[in-house]
Amino acid sequence: MNQKELNEIRRRLSLDKNCIGKIYGCFVNDQKQVVLSFEESVAALPEAESEKYMSLLKKSLSGGLGRCLINIDFTNEQIMEGEEYKTLLKLYESALKDTEALASFFQKVIDTIDMNGQNYLILVACDKYDVPFKPTDGTDMDDASDSVFTYIMCSICPVKDSKSVLGYFAGENAFRSRNIGQVVAPPEVGFMFPTFDNRATNIYSTLYYSKDTSIIHDEFIDGFFKAQVPMSAGEQKETFDNVLTESLEESFDFDVVQSVHEQIRERIEEHKASKSVEPLDMTASEIGCILENSGVKQEQIEVFKEQCDEKFGQSTALNPSNIIDPKKFEVTTPQVKIKINPDYTYAVQTREIDGRTYILIPADEGVQVNGVDIKI
Of 151, 239, 289, 357, which is least packed with CB atoms within 10 Å of its CB? Predict the structure, then answer.
């Protein structure tokens, strides 16, 4: 799925656009015991409750592709013989109406996911989308649908005790401490099956969601989907930083870091400005060119590319937003932490004065200390 296709499905998950008839849920306690299983007719629910359910499902399509949202493709072996694929396919083909398949699905989730001792709620719903025909000019023709995209949304949400608040009790005409009980938090994990590739159904792929880009619940990916666990965005950044440090050694100084960050960030901004629907990625060779532009020696660049192939896989393309934070540039010493607007990193310099190395930041005007304007 590309960004445009993702946005098209995201827009479905509102009360006035989706065709979801029922929402199915399974409330599980911290001992992995089912407390409650239920089904709710969306039409019979109060509007406020329906909106909250839709919001929880929609959250499982939030975040960026390649960061919070990861494609999991099924192998030919799984498609032919895999129980995990058959479980999803039964749910999909029955539009969640097969009660045995639904119960089996809930149990499989409970058996494979580790929610760190929390209560949690599993929500699933099925939507059918009459995909509008798009002529070559890109406009939608809502009355000219040429296919139907049926898909399942799943959100796995922690259920937490609410904080005690001060509330007004009319009968006592007084304010008292009150607790509203347990509340459903935004999903920590979720998925959509099948995917909407080229604006059509791809029953061989799942779009997997993880709220935390550093903790993607690999035990669930491995146990439920039986798929190779992809490297999380957090792991990608840590690995990339280690590869740079080890391959460049003493050459990996402030100027190189500054230059690499600026050039990769520039690529991200250019891609955003182009409004391309395809995700941006960069190969080790492309990053090698950036290192060359930053003054790194060719032999060290070759070591860098070799280590990238070793750590990430041969010729693997990386998501630039996973290996740098384009919205942040931070310099830390044991005594000081400096946050710099990424648009102005070029103004920061290093200089040796009286035998000591300093980081210099322009301070001509607009300087504040603890929020107070000062003059230097």
Answer: 357
173-196 per-position pLDDT tens digit: 888 888 778 899 999 999 999 999
In sequence order, what E strands does the chain have?
Answer: 22-28, 34-41, 69-73, 119-133, 141-161, 165-169, 174-178, 182-184, 189-193, 195-197, 200-202, 205-210, 329-332, 337-340, 349-353, 356-360, 368-369, 372-373
The β-bridge partners of 41 are 22
Task: Tell me if 267 sits within 8 A of 287, measured CB to CB.
Answer: no
Span between the terminal Cα atoms of the chain, in Å: 53
> What residue has token string 């839709």?
54
Whether 224 and 256 map to the same domain: the answer is no
* Total tally of structural domains belonging to the chain: 3
For residue 237, count other CB atoms closer than 10 A to its CB. Answer: 19
**Are 357 and 271 members of one domain?**
no
**Whether residue 333 is found in the same domain as residue 323:** no
Residue span of the structural domain in which 181 resides: 3-230
116 with 187, same domain: the answer is yes
- Do residues 161 and 238 share a domain? no
pTM, two decimals, is 0.84
Q: Is 210 helix (H, G, I), strand (E, B) or coil?
A: strand
Smallest CA-to-CA distance from 268 within 210, 327, 309 is with: 327
